[in-house]
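Exercise: predict the fold of this chain.
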Amino acid sequence: MPDIQTPHRTGPALTLRTAAAWMVTFAGFPLGSVAAGLIAGPVDGPVAALAGGFITGAVIGGLQAWGLGHNRPPALQWVLATALGLMLGLWAGAGLVGFATDPSSLVIQGAICGAAVGLAQGVVLVGRLGVLAFGWPVLLSAAWALGWTITTAVGVEVGEQFTVFGSSGAVTVTALTLVLPYLLNRAASTENRS
């Protein structure tokens, strides 16, 4: 019987463990938003968007790097990509909607932020996932737009101009992106068989 602790095992025990670790990373969204709010304030202008996006992205990226486990891309690259992607995405998205917090503005902002984070992370992923990495920005754009839709629907006080959606949106986005740890595990398994 194979040892469950074998690093490259692709059976259900590793899949369940990997999925559970990835789901914990949802906490990076509210934690990053709180940290950004304390340091940069509400997202009410370009400087706050840039600073808040970077801080929030760094927290999200750090937790995601942990959640991806041993098959992840280099952690520093992942954290920086996430931070820079959210910094630029929030600056562009919030600026495009005039820093408004009505539901449709937040959906647009979320789509732009998700696409920017996805593009930055996709650059890091392309070496491991090949052409599949090009789908990552599309998935994140749709998921982040949905994250804001859910957050506004459950009644979170979005007028406080947070950097990202709340926990309900974060759990949804994290669940929708469970495909990433799966693909990275599959890629590592394929490399090990070669």
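Check your answer against the key: The helical segments are 12-24, 28-40, 46-68, 75-96, 103-129, 136-153, 167-176, 179-193.
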